[in-house]
Here is the input.
Amino acid sequence: MAPRAWESAPFPIGLAARAGLDTVPRMCRNIRTLANFAPPATAAEIRASSLQFVRKLSGANKPSKANAALFERAVDEVASAAERLVHGWVTSAPPKDRDVEIRKMIERSRARFGKEPKRTPIDPIR
Here is the structure.
């Protein structure tokens, strides 16, 4: 079987290719890694990440009434798959400490914006 176009390309076909880039742009900044944290990601965190993902895919922050059921079903399905992935992920790396990661994000925010952030992507500021 011949490789598909995107499998043989040096980078994924899509926005990066159309923009003439030889690298893929970073993931949406609102979607964060949830695997390998201590304590593990909660169902609420996984659902919030799934909601962001479906919003990004659909291009809709809030769907119309006609699309509301489809949108919610998509969020539920993505959350279910994400929960299996996050809780089943096996790695030899030690779990990341949530508080340490939050402090790193706060420091990056201070350096970038010159002020204290109101919240972090992982959790509200403690």
In short: Confidence is low (pLDDT under 50) at residues 3-12. The CA atoms of residues 99 and 126 lie 9 Å apart.
